[in-house]
Specification:
Layout: H1 7-30, H2 37-58, H3 65-77, E1 85-87, H4 92-102, E2 104-107, E3 112-115, E4 118-121, H5 130-133, E5 141-145, E6 148-149, H6 155-162, E7 169-175, E8 183-188, E9 190-193, E10 197-202, E11 207-212, H7 219-232, E12 237-241, H8 250-257, E13 266-272, E14 279-282, E15 294-298, H9 305-315, E16 320-323, E17 331-337, E18 344-353, H10 378-381, E19 387-389, E20 395-397, E21 406-407, H11 415-422, H12 425-435, H13 448-460, H14 468-482, H15 487-504, H16 507-510, H17 512-537, H18 542-551, H19 554-560
Parallel strand pairs: 11-12, 12-15, 15-16, 16-21
Antiparallel strand pairs: 1-18, 2-9, 3-4, 5-6, 5-7, 7-8, 10-11, 13-14, 13-18, 17-18, 19-20
Length: about 575
């Protein structure tokens, strides 16, 4: 760039001019207890600009002005909450934002993840997409995109190569299990509409089950359509699964809740620094599932929009919340365009409050509290565990997040199971097994023969793993050697290592139930797609089983809500 050497001065000038233009608004809106708030802002912009200018001009080596400025921006934002961030036009954050706000993107319609260090198709391609029409399968390994090897690429980098302008072509080379030569596909990118519903079906004849994976623009309508279909099929009770759902758009959370909460009822409120940003969100439509039994499943990864829906259902006694306490993310982000090229600032501007008055956000969300004036408000610090009341006067606790009405202990995986998952052992075995056993029925079980085959498979793949104990002993061994302790000390350590190794030999048998469950789910996924995977979990999932137990007993269900049986 011809004038690149003047960029620091231009940026500083722009900052000061912007401050001058915005000064009246800032002075009028902040209503801060500090009288010279605007003066402080202007003074510190000048300070920031001076430091930036002097460093870029005088540092011992040439500095990239753009990268240096971005580092400064990101450094400032890191002192705030984790959700305030600068989003560049072409970054992954920009794509995620676009997907949430539109529910679609230009691409080929496959979901990928790393398997054996290669990007691999991990679910059947989305129906009707270029990938599905080309008969691309789950388990296909992407080895080249437009002539570029994917071996060293991250999943984000691979996805960016697959996505692009609608109507453009992308050439993909893949390896498929059981096929000797690579397969080549020429796909034309299309508009991919992503469904927020991962699964919709029945747990039994009368109880429906819907898994909602995100809250993009179409979540409310997709949920309403699914409920309508199952109502016509005789559904009498519904399980809405929000476990692992990190949230999404506020408007989508309201629309999802409107499926269960009748017109005029409160769903959520947002309150910010200025009263002009405060707003109450009421249901605007008649609910499609207004008075029938409802169970909402949550866990520690249910956040933001998921907590709005679960919290509103709980506060209005509209359904039973089952699972583990939620994440506690109740901050509203506003997206502000920053540059003409499309970069933007996502800034936390308000907090969410539920109908009972409790705050969703957990306390201490700001990283460096001493830079935020007025942070220690009475509302956020002294009332963490205050008791609030639902519509029927049931007690619910504040303090952030949603505490389930019925808490179920979360399942934890052993180190062995975690390593089998991380190293794609279940996935790869299921891929091979399913290709040779198309005759299996959906009610199949994991026999001893399948378990034996899996053990053999692990040996052929030279599967190994280290426990936390082994890693800590290795560190201790290094320290002992560095400090030159005697052979006696080392012999004790060797004895401990041998004892742990002997115990470790029994890990497979000790965790056989977890292993069988994962094997069944992966084999079902390969044979019947994502729905098959979810259905295989119904009989093992304690949270789903508890929901079924509650929903099959109307008297118990309504007594939990302090309401009458209808």
């Amino acid at each position: 760039m011809k004038n690149k050497k003047y960029l620091p001065i231009l940026l500083i000038s722009a900052l000061i001019i912007s401050a001058t233009i915005l000064g009246g608004w800032i002075a009028g809106e902040t209503k801060s207890s500090k009288p010279d708030y605007y003066f402080e802002i202007e003074k510190n912009i000048a300070l920031f600009g001076k430091v930036y200018e002097e460093v870029t001009k005088r540092y011992v080596e040439v500095i990239d002005p753009e990268k240096f400025m971005k580092a400064g921006i990101n450094g400032m934002l890191r002192t705030l909450d984790p959700y305030t961030m600068y989003i560049e036009q072409e970054g992954e954050g920009s794509f995620d934002l676009k997907l949430l706000t539109t529910g679609k993107y230009g691409g080929v319609g496959m979901r990928i993840a790393k398997r054996d260090n290669w990007p691999t198709v991990v679910e059947p391609p989305f129906e009707g997409t270029p990938s599905a029409r080309a008969s691309i399968r789950e388990g296909d390994r992407i080895i080249e995109i437009d002539g570029k090897s994917t071996k060293e690429l991250t999943i984000t980098e691979t996805a960016q190569l697959l996505r692009g302008k609608i109507g453009t072509e992308v050439n993909i080379k893949m390896r498929r299990h059981g096929v000797e030569m690579p397969l080549e596909f020429r796909l034309i990118r299309a508009e991919i509409n992503v469904s927020d519903i991962s699964y919709s079906g029945f747990v039994d004849d009368k109880i429906g089950y819907i898994r909602l994976s995100r809250f993009s623009r179409l979540a409310g309508k997709q949920l309403r359509d699914s409920i309508a279909v199952m109502k016509d099929q005789g559904m009498e009770s519904l399980i809405l699964d929000l476990r692992g759902n990190p949230g999404g758009l506020l408007e989508s959370a309201v629309q999802v809740a409107e499926n269960f909460i009748n017109k005029g009822k409160p769903i959520v409120s947002k309150k910010g620094r200025h009263s002009s940003s405060n707003k109450d969100y009421l249901s605007r439509t008649e609910a499609i599932w207004a008075d029938k039994p409802l169970a909402v499943l949550v866990n520690g990864s249910s956040a933001s929009a998921s907590e709005i829906v679960a919290g509103a259902v709980q506060d209005l006694d509209r359904g039973i919340i089952i699972g583990q306490p939620t994440f506690g993310k109740g901050l509203v982000q506003t997206v502000i365009p920053i540059t003409r090229s499309g970069s933007s600032l996502k800034i936390t501007s308000e907090k969410y409050y539920l109908p009972s008055g409790r705050l969703i956000q957990k306390p201490d969300f700001i990283r460096t509290k001493d830079i935020v004036w007025g942070y220690k408000s009475e509302e956020d610090t002294t009332k963490k565990e205050e008791i609030y009341f639902t519509a029927t006067k049931r007690e619910v606790l504040g303090g952030g997040g949603i505490k389930p009405d019925i808490e179920i202990e979360g399942s934890t995986f052993s180190p062995l199971t975690i390593n089998l998952i991380m190293k794609s052992m279940f996935f790869n075995f299921a891929l091979e097994f399913a290709s040779n056993h198309n005759e299996l029925q959906k009610d199949f079980s994991i026999s001893e023969k399948i378990v034996s085959n899996f053990r053999t498979f692990l040996k052929t793949k030279n599967f190994s793993y280290k426990t936390e104990s082994e890693m800590q002993i290795e560190e201790l061994e290094k320290t002992i050697q560095e400090e030159k302790y005697s052979e006696n000390v080392m012999s004790y350590l060797v004895g401990l290592k041998n004892s742990i190794q002997k115990e470790k030999e029994n890990d497979f048998d000790k965790n056989i139930d977890q292993i069988k469950r994962r094997l069944r789910a992966e084999i079902a996924a390969k044979l019947w797609g994502t729905p098959g995977k979810y259905e295989s979990e119904f009989q093992f999932d304690k949270t789903i089983q508890k929901a079924v137990e509650v929903l099959t007993n109307n008297e118990n269900y309504f007594s939990l809500l302090n309401t009458k049986v209808e």
